[in-house]
Amino acid sequence: MNVIIKLKSLVMHLLIPICIGYLSSVLSGDIPRLYQSLILPGFAPPPSVFPWIWTILYLLMGISAYLIASSRADTGQKRQAMIPYYAGLFLNFLWSILFFRFHLCSAAFVNILAMIVLLILQLVEYRKLNRSAAALQLPYFLWLIFAGALNLSICLLN
């Protein structure tokens, strides 16, 4: 029975970021077409790369959240660690909508900066409870730095 409960928890933690990312993309419009209509910097990846990267990052987010939720820490510590995670996930949801649906490039850039700050707070809290959970977020941190540079470059070029 305990294994089934853990499996359900893992699946739930995996589905939350994936579903939020999917909903954001649906609400953002035709992202590949909009992306290709922009003047892009030389380091911009092709649109086909983004779904793969985001799927991997969302899975890593879910695994990390599961590791925190299933840690032996008390409820207050877990809650403290999850607050920046869920706040960052909400900003992640908003980013595509700001950038692609509403063409608010500068607001989307500020959003990414806020996501980076929240992720740093999340990393600090996760590290206290489970170093592996924190380490699994490092690719997301690097991606946000890259995405911020890409976002800013697109703002300046368009």
Uncertain segments: none
Main sheet record: none
Shape: elongated
Q: What's the mean pLDDT score?
A: 96
Find the count of extended strands (DSSP E, 2+ residues).
Answer: 0
Broad structural category: mainly alpha
- Please bin the fraction of helical residues: over 70%
How far is the N terminus from the C terminus? 56 Å
Beta-strand content bin: under 5%
How large, in whole angstroms, is the Cα Rg? 16 Å
Determine the number of helices (DSSP H or I, runs of at least 4 residues): 7
- List SSEs in N-to-C order: HHHHHHH
Question: How would you describe what is shown here?
Answer:
- This protein has helices at 2-27, 31-36, 49-69, 75-101, 105-129, 131-135, 138-157.
- The protein has seven helices and no strands.
- Helix 5 (105-129) packs antiparallel against helix 7 (138-157).
- By secondary structure, the protein is mostly helical.
- The mean pLDDT is 96.
Topology diagram in text:
Elements: H1 2-27, H2 31-36, H3 49-69, H4 75-101, H5 105-129, H6 131-135, H7 138-157
Give me some keywords for this one.
mainly alpha, 158 residues
Summarize this entry quickly.
Helix content is 82%, strand content 0%. It has 158 residues and is mainly α.
